[in-house]
């Protein structure tokens, strides 16, 4: 589930997976897929982080169009994107089955059309400020430690972690790129779990 992550610009913001069956991530009201995010991070770690780059994401501007997952879990018919995904992929009844599925990327063709019903396609401006050691993901500004937290979150599979503690290959590729990176945002990152 999304967890609170520290930003310098907005205090604590929600970031993470919101359904164990999909690799869709949210950053407050911005949505993108972990396959894309990991590919971006891998490229930044391998090449050189760009001073500025525009990346395609989805944004839901009205909170009511995001929806309330907790109400959906409790059986309330609640509007919004997250409850719509929950109706297609409800949580398992057995708590031990509540693990992030590494094959979640395979349902993007089901999730993305639902997302388009509620969100607009926009560009997220990403900036790497080497002098101040800041990473800007859209309007959200992270220091290196905060940026590391969101990379670690994806690596772990968020909360409740990857099923069988086995991340998908695209996450392992990102971790390897980050571990081997000589570029400033990634130095000292990727702990062992």
Q: How would you describe this protein?
A:
By secondary structure, the protein is an alpha+beta fold. Helices cover 34% and strands 24% of the residues. The protein has helices at residues 34-46, 63-66, 69-73, 81-88, 108-118, 144-156, 169-179; strands spanning 3-7, 11-17, 24-27, 30-33, 52-59, 120-129, 134-137, 140-143. β2 (11-17) and β3 (24-27) form a beta hairpin. α1 (34-46) runs parallel beside α7. The longest helix is centred in the first third of the chain and has 13 residues, at 34-46. The protein is globular and about 50 Å long. The protein starts with a strand and ends in a 14-residue tail after the last helix.
């Amino acid at each position: 589930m999304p967890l609170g992550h520290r930003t310098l610009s907005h205090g604590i913001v929600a970031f993470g997976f919101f359904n164990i069956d999909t690799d869709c991530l949210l950053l407050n009201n911005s949505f993108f897929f972990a396959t894309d995010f990991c590919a971006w991070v891998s490229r930044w770690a391998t090449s050189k982080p760009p001073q500025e780059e525009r990346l395609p994401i989805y944004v839901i501007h009205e909170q009511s169009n995001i929806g309330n997952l907790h109400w959906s879990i409790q059986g309330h018919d609640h509007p919004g994107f997250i409850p719509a995904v929950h109706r297609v992929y409800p949580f398992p009844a057995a708590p031990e089955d509540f693990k992030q599925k590494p094959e979640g990327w395979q349902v993007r063709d089901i999730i993305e059309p639902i997302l388009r019903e509620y969100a607009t396609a926009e560009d997220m401006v990403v900036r790497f400020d080497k002098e101040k050691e800041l990473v800007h993901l859209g309007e959200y500004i992270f220091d290196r430690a905060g940026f590391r937290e969101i990379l670690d979150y994806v690596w772990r599979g968020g909360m409740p972690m990857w099923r069988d503690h086995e991340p998908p290959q695209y996450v392992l590729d990102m971790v390897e790129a980050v571990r081997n990176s000589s570029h400033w945002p990634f130095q000292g990152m990727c702990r062992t779990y």
